[in-house]
Write a structure and sequence with these properties.
The chain has 125 residues and is α+β, with helices and mostly antiparallel strands. It has helices spanning 2-11, 57-67, 115-124, and strands at residues 42-46, 51-54, 71-78, 81-84, 88-91, 103-106, 113-114. Strand 3 (71-78) and strand 4 form a beta hairpin. The longest helix is centred in the middle third of the chain and has 11 residues, at 57-67.
């Protein structure tokens, strides 16, 4: 019984642990383009422990709007590394792999829009 509980505990995804993406090998779960540039990457970690990689924040937001997966955490990569959805804002008008124009920055960055506004912009397209 203890062994079974240990195995189950080890298999549970940790929402506080940043996702692992194999750059230039993992395909975007939305557009299927390879995830190559960390500055534009995003990921969804589902309750089953799957990591869904994205090559553009817009792809992740489209996926969330269309498929609403059971998720533990949404992550966005910026110049400094991974940030949770709670800790991110977006600069707009940037060149991005799929043209969303959204670049993740730390929450509260001057001139950046919050996640909810980024979602509305993506869903309106």
């Amino acid at each position: 019984m203890i062994l079974l509980l240990s195995v189950l505990a080890c298999g549970r995804p940790d929402p506080a642990r940043p996702p692992e993406i194999a750059w230039d090998r993992d395909a975007c779960a939305w557009c299927t383009m390879l995830v190559s540039d960390p500055r534009h990457a995003a990921a969804i970690v589902t309750t089953s422990g799957a990591t869904l990689p994205f090559d553009d924040p817009g792809c992740a937001l489209h996926y969330l709007a269309e498929r609403a997966p059971p998720m533990l955490q949404v992550w966005f990569h910026d110049a400094d590394g991974w940030r949770t959805a709670e800790d991110v804002s977006f600069r707009t008008g940037e060149l991005t792999p799929m043209g969303s124009g959204l670049l993740a920055v730390p929450r509260g960055t001057a001139g950046a829009i919050p996640l909810d506004e980024a979602r509305r912009r993506v869903e309106a397209k």
